[in-house]
Design a protein that fits this description.
The protein folds into 2 domains: 287 residues, 2-Layer Sandwich (BirA Bifunctional Protein, domain 2); 90 residues, 3-Layer(aba) Sandwich (Rossmann fold), CATH 3.40.50. 44% of the residues lie in helices and 18% in strands. Strand 12, helix 15 and strand 13 form a beta-alpha-beta unit. Helix 8 packs antiparallel against helix 9. The mean pLDDT is 88. It binds one RNA strand of 77 nucleotides through helix 3, strand 6, strand 11, helix 13 and helix 16.
Length: 463
RNA sequence: GAGGCUAUAGCUCAGUUGGUUAGAGCGUCGGUUUGUGGUUCCGAAGGUCGUGGGUUCGAGACCCAUUAGCCUCCCCA
């Protein structure tokens, strides 16, 4: 018999872990609701054609495909055909409906776009939705990277106002403030600035090449980026221009002014700069001065997903070595992929598994989150058990989370169970308590114990 | 897709240049204690050393293959 295991890159969540995860979910949900977003859920699987081609070549490779199970090829010719399809399937990341026509969801944005198109006539636009569900990627797992992980997304579709961008920035900053995450930087940039950058380098066609190289600035440094740019065929004047641009420093407004000068010949760059200015101005009005995170214009921020067209954002926590914990941006024509034109959207995503890892690593989960507040009634059997059950029922009616040890086993064993369960209170009701119509309430944290009436005990537990 | 590391008890790991019966800590169970846990003390159970082959008088250790996990690059949350 082989030892049981779970698929690579997936995890079980213990009771304490689930509580801690729920703490994050609940924090985010409260904020989404407060900002007027509505909940949405979509299926774990989508038609493969919905997903293919939306995440770039690399993304297509990482989609988990679901094998068709109703294969009843009876004729030899059909079996032959299936074999051919298999060969294609294994060599290319393309759809071969005979073998697979469904796939696990890769992110929450594309399914959302699909939903909006399908339900366009019932929705009130601008439509604001949040969604918290698992997604799957056939990636190679490593630190902070899983094959099954959860995303929490908030998107607004059907409005081009930059108020939306500003609100989403506020949601980010509010969330990381509420979660007490230190050293959070929300980086903001615009695809239009990147397009402008390519334009002033006389390499408009190579915007992706430039941004991909530039995105690695943090990791490989300027020398590395120069190498990449040369390799991708950017000439020296272009590289000099890029050097000039990434050397821009100062406050956000100082950066934007400098970029305005450098890229003054590019209409699209100027448009991007204006959008960033307006977004920042809206954000300034909406923000809360207590938020500790930093909002930083970063021209080197690229982001891979190729459907972004306007403002893009990414969140990192500099207190730990970890990839980004959130990202998002404006996509002008996401629903156009499914036939609905002129429907601009903008959204952000929280990578809650990474956020969990960061909070855990920094030991920032509030203490009471992991255990919950629970009361255990010990069981002495017979008359005492009947009396105990009666108390249990009264506790629950009063809204107290309580359980009784179901078996009348040795006192010591029940106490050890209580300890392992990390309960906050233990209630002891033996002959003595029963005859006095009282109970002994033991605070399991302090070890203090007193003889009380049921009402008194409830008051203390709820206090 | 490229590269590196690891695999020994339920968990975390020791195990010397290859040499008798493979160890520790934690955990589990039992006792100390059948109305007081988390602390002490005593005891017990638990391993064909990932799998297959090879070298050797002899392999947990060395070699080859294989599988799984972890990590880095790529890319991403």
């Amino acid at each position: 018999m082989s030892k049981p295991s779970i698929p690579q890159g997936t995890r079980d969540f213990s009771p304490a872990e689930v509580r801690k995860r729920q703490y994050i979910f609940n924090t985010l949900q409260a904020i989404f609701e407060q900002y007027g977003f509505q909940p949405l859920e979509t299926p774990a699987m989508e038609n493969l054609t919905t997903l293919i081609g939306k995440y770039g070549e690399e993304g297509d490779r990482l989609i988990f495909k679901i094998l068709n199970n109703g294969l009843h090829e009876k004729k030899d010719a059909d079996k032959e055909k299936l074999n051919e399809e298999w060969a294609t399937m294994l060599s290319k990341p393309y759809n071969t409906p005979k073998v697979t026509e469904r796939a696990l969801r890769y992110d929450l944005t594309i399914p959302f776009a699909r939903y909006v198109v399908m339900h366009q006539h019932e929705l009130a636009f601008p439509f604001r939705r949040y969604q918290m569900q698992p997604v799957w990627r056939a990636d190679r797992p490593q630190k902070g990277r899983y094959r099954e992980f959860w995303q929490c997304d908030a998107d607004v579709v059907g409005s081009t106002s930059l108020i939306n961008e500003a609100e989403l920035l506020c949601i980010y900053r509010r969330a990381f403030h509420d979660l007490n995450l230190p050293q959070v930087v929300v980086k903001i940039n615009s695809r239009k600035l990147l397009a402008g950058l390519a334009e002033v380098c006389n390499a408009s066609e190579q915007m992706m090449d430039i941004t991909i190289a530039l995105d690695k600035l943090d990791k490989i440094g300027w020398d590395g980026v120069t190498g990449e740019l040369k390799q991708r065929g950017i000439n020296d004047t272009g590289i000099a221009k890029i050097a000039e641009i990434i050397n821009v420093t100062g406050t956000n407004e100082e950066k934007l002014s400098a970029l305005e000068q450098i890229m003054s010949t590019s209409a699209v760059a100027l448009e991007g700069i204006k959008e960033l200015r307006d977004t920042l101005a809206y954000h300034d009005t909406l923000k809360d001065g207590n938020w500790s995170s930093e909002l930083m214009v970063d021209i080197s921020l690229a982001r891979g997903l190729n459907y972004y067209t306007g403002v893009i954002v990414e969140v990192v926590c500099n207190a730990v070595k970890m990839g980004s914990i959130g990202g998002g941006g404006r996509y002008d024509d996401l629903t156009g992929l499914f036939g609905l034109k002129n429907m601009s959207g903008v959204g952000v995503s929280f990578g809650i598994d990474r956020i969990y890892d960061v909070i855990e690593e920094l030991n920032l989960f509030p203490e009471e989150v992991a255990s919950g507040k629970q009361t255990l009634i010990l069981n002495f059997g017979g008359e005492d058990e009947r009396y105990a059950l009666n108390i249990l029922q009264q506790l629950r009616n009063a809204g107290v989370s309580a359980e009784i040890y179901p078996d009348s086993v040795k006192f010591d064993k029940q106490m050890k169970y209580a300890n392992k369960r990390n309960v906050t209170y233990v209630i002891i009701v033996g002959e003595e308590e029963r005859k006095a119509n009282k109970l002994s309430l033991k605070n399991f944290v302090t070890g203090e114990q007193e003889l009380l009436s049921i009402e008194e005990a409830i008051n203390i537990i709820q206090g």
